[in-house]
Design brief:
mainly alpha, 5 helices, about 80% helix
């Protein structure tokens, strides 16, 4: 697969992806917050359980949102759903690999009294990288038109 074909897209698709991504982010955080609220006091480290449970709902919501509103593919639900998990898993690995580097970079430029902000700023900075990575993954893997491969 050539780089040029990976990057070919149209403006409407990118805009729909970003709008849908905002919805997916709000939905995902809302589900996470709900489960934190529901499980706190009932389980130790409730936020960890909330994260795992909410991930299932968030990825499923994202998959359906992108399928219906952005890429508009027909059929192939199981194959696409599995590919969607693969794309998000890959994006997560990229994020985990780059996060320590980004935190280190912020630690070197921020004044000492703001060093506690480094993980938050690094996460925000990497949001752009993982958004682009996920878009290209969904466009060229999860919802690739004309592909019968898993």
């Amino acid at each position: 697969m050539r780089i040029k074909s990976l990057l070919e897209t149209n403006r409407k698709e990118v805009i729909l992806y970003l709008i849908t991504g905002v919805w997916n982010t709000v939905f995902g955080y809302g589900v996470y917050a709900f489960f934190v609220w529901l499980l706190t006091g009932k389980l130790p480290a409730a936020y960890m359980f909330a994260s795992v449970i909410s991930t299932f709902f968030s990825v499923t919501n994202s998959y359906l949102s992108y399928k219906v509103f952005v890429f508009k593919t027909k059929g192939n639900y199981i194959k696409e759903y599995i590919k969607c998990w693969a794309v998000y898993g890959s994006a997560g690995i990229v994020n985990l690999a780059l996060l320590p580097v980004a935190v280190f970079c912020f630690n070197t430029v921020l004044p000492d009294k703001y060093l506690n902000l480094s993980p938050y700023l690094a996460g925000l900075a990497l949001l752009f990288v993982t958004t682009v990575f996920s878009f290209l993954g969904h466009k060229n893997v999860t919802f690739k038109k004309g592909s019968k491969n898993l």
